[in-house]
Amino acid sequence: MWRLGRLVLALLLLSLVGSPVAAATPEGQSTQRWGLPPVWGGCERFLADAGKVPTAQCGTVAVPFDYNDPDGELAQLAVIKVPASGDRIGVLIVNPGGPGASAVDTVAGMGAALAGTELLERFDLVGVDPRGVGHSTPQLRCRTDEEFDAYRREPLADYSPAGVAHIESVYADLVRRCTERMGAAFLSGVGTATAAIDLDVVRAALGEHQLNYLGFSYGTQLGAAYAARYPDRVRAMVLDGAVDPTLDPVAARIRQLNGFQRAFDAYAADCAKAADCPLGTDPSQFVARYRQLVDPLVTRPAYTSDPRGLSYSDAITGTVNALYSPRYWPYLTSGLLGLRDGTDAVDLLLLADDYYRRDRSGHYKNQHDALMAIRCVDAPYPPDPAVWVEADRQVRQAAPFLAHGAFTGFAPRDLCSMWPVPPTSAPQPATSPGPGKVVVVSVTRDPATPYEAGVELARQMGASLITFDGAQHTVVFNGDACVDTAVVNFLIDSVVPPHGLRC
């Protein structure tokens, strides 16, 4: 439920707010070890292209692994600030979602893209990498680059009893490596509940009585958790690409996959306008034609100009990545044509690389390891295999383009059902931090966070809803004047968008 790397361009009472000597813990205990204001410096330590945002300042804020053990080990949260250039209102903290995407990288991009705008005149634009994510340390890494490549070569498509046993052994091995490399103490603290506390520690370290917040995708979940815990600390909050916090992991996954099926249907219909569409021109055959192209990869990867070839897993991942936005549909068509014609299917491999954040040198960012660890502690995952058999049946109904083979009556358990530490959150409705404080933005044909989730989140939080008619994941500050004007007016002047605003 996230869009990694796709933004043009996610937070305790502290009585000594911004004190350079001491801050208060969530329990009111003073400490000099963590929660102190950042020592600002250049951003070269985080960003290779720091010069693109010359006014940006970077630093870190220390937080304990475990707030119940404030004298224990500390994590360092990476923080970037692009200072307001004019009559300053306060801070606007941005989280790009994932979970696992770097807010530092996102704010650097937004700072460059929005330079000279009234938004950056009135707000310090701030990004905080949650613990384990991006430039924060320790960085959450469960796999080496080589191990990640090997994981992607696994088809994980055989749902016979022996096949399911193999899939679960692959998952169990990944869980074991993650536990050994990061430690249970660290993994216990990476969930959204702790991230909301961390965000409030950062707010205090920045010397702010209240914060303004812009969250995309999973960032809406973090924002809602913060608003529930610290309603008086919220001045204005914009949540774009909403996650419905009442859904359990299975229900949320089914809703999301149904959104991707709708996106696949829209892509296929658009592709069929061309006589050479690899899915043909008969809508009743789009899914069957797609499966005919990708199913053979279960046993034999396809040729690509990259020596890795295209695995079954990467073909599926590349397809899903392309469905986030119509601007990527041409690359999906190119890859599928390569499969059909036995030529170069490298565009599907590159789409999978983009999704997994693998660069040309073969190095991965840690976004997917962080995503895995965060989602595994954010909700209970039942260990009963029968639950996952039923979930598999529902998934095949929701997204037939992703279903491999016939329903067998067997299904692997989700990796998170094997996680070594208990969940720290559970599904529950969001709450309102107060009237006029929250705006939710939802895209009608968003494949990853379907429109209905935004409607539900707005209802739960008593928030205004902006509807954007489109087929992409998130929209704020992606060039739509209707949405952006309403958001900027809300953030700067607290002007609530007109009821029923549709852009």
UniProtKB/TrEMBL annotation:
The keyword Hydrolase appears for this protein: yes
Family annotation (Pfam families): Abhydrolase_1
InterPro entries reported in the protein's UniProt record: AB_hydrolase_1, AB_hydrolase_fold, Serine_prot/Carboxylest_S33
Record-annotated AB hydrolase-1 domain positions: 91-479
Signal peptide: 1-24
Statement: the UniProt record of this protein carries the keyword Signal: yes
Domain of life according to the entry: Bacteria
Gene3D superfamilies membership: alpha/beta hydrolase (3.40.50.1820)
UniProt keyword terms in alphabetical order: Hydrolase, Signal
GO molecular function (one): hydrolase activity
Family the entry assigns: Belongs to the peptidase S33 family.
The protein's name: Alpha/beta hydrolase fold family protein
Organism: Mycolicibacterium hassiacum (strain DSM 44199 / CIP 105218 / JCM 12690 / 3849)
